[in-house]
Each structure stands twice: as C-alpha cells, then as structure tokens.
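Support reply, case 0932

Customer input (verbatim):
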Amino acid sequence: MQQSFNSSLLENAVTELSKLPGIGRKTALRLALHLLRREPEEAEALGASIIDMRRNISYCTRCHNISEQSVCPICSDPRRDAHTVCVVENVKDVITIESTHSHHGLYHVLGGLISPIDGVSPSDLEIDSLVERVEKEDIREVILALSPTIEGDTTNYYIFRKLASTPVKVTMLARGLSIGNELEYADELTLGRSIQNRVLFSDTFNSK
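Our regenerated output:
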C-alpha cells in the first residue's frame, strides 16, 4: 500500500526522488525527511547544483562523453594519444577507466550495447559515428572496452565487422575480467592490466 502524507509538498518530493534508479519510496521518504532537518540553504544548494548540471552539461560532439563545452576536455587535451580510441558503453565506463591511469588515448561512448531482447539495435548506438571517426581521423587503434557479457560480445563483433574494411587495428581488453561482469564493477588493478595486456580482437575471435 502506498504511503499517504499530510503534506502535498512532501508527497511531491518523495514521488520525484523515487523516480531515481535504485530509490524506492521508503528511501525517498528518508532522503526527503533528511533534507527537511537540514538548513534550507543546504537543500537549496543541492537543488541548484542539479539544475545547473542538467542545464549546462551536454555531450561531446566528437566522442559523446559528457562535457560542458562542445568538445570535452579529454578530446581537446593535446597530451592525449589521438591515434588510439577506447570504445566504451557509457560515461560511467570512461570515469572507471580514467581512474586506472592506464589509457592515455581518446574515447568513444556508444550509449549502450546491442540487445535485440531490449529493443536496442546498432542504429540506436553511436557506432556509425565511430566508423566515421576512423575514416576521417588518424586513428590507428580501436580498443573495444565493453563488458564481457553476451551483449558486449555481440557489440564487439558488430563493430569489428564494421571496421573490417579499414586499416585500423582492433583490440579488446584481456580477459582478466570475469565473464558476465559489468566493467564498472571491476577493480582498478584488474581493469588496468586488462587494458595494458589487450589483444587483437581477430585473434580472440579465431580462437573460438
């Protein structure tokens, strides 16, 4: 049974908070009541930061990572290796890989993985823009850094086939990562080694 509150304002706050992933109504109520106990300035600062983030953060026109400018800081950093592009599922994976300090190139965020069951097709992802980057930029290696799941492997193979006519080297993370695990849950040491010990995708495919 859904809880009923004496305040419509509290009800509205709980309803909105419960829309966040992993937040049920009980947790949302606890968060809302916590904010009520704090100084008004704290709640206002929280609200202002969320509004500011939503209004002013968009996506990099080159790699689709989050950015406050048209081109993200990673893409515009001249110290990065522009010849190597690491392909990831989402923005969280960029943050995860960056924390390992093992990749010094650029990124390309797909925005998901191919999953026919979930209705996600290649056209829903930033795969064509990746192929376009490879054809237009001086990219020599594409690292497939997708989670070792069925969806990840399907997407890896699809990208490999799309890039088959180009001279770019396609590699993938060494399988130090457990099969079926999401990339964001890998520890930094394991993930870092998987990047450093990456292998040619074609060698992995031919060995199956």
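We compared this against your earlier run and they match. Two observations from our side: Strands lie at 58-59, 66-67, 81-88, 105-109, 141-144, 169-172, 199-200. The two ends are 52 Å apart (CA to CA). Please reopen the case if you see a mismatch on your end.
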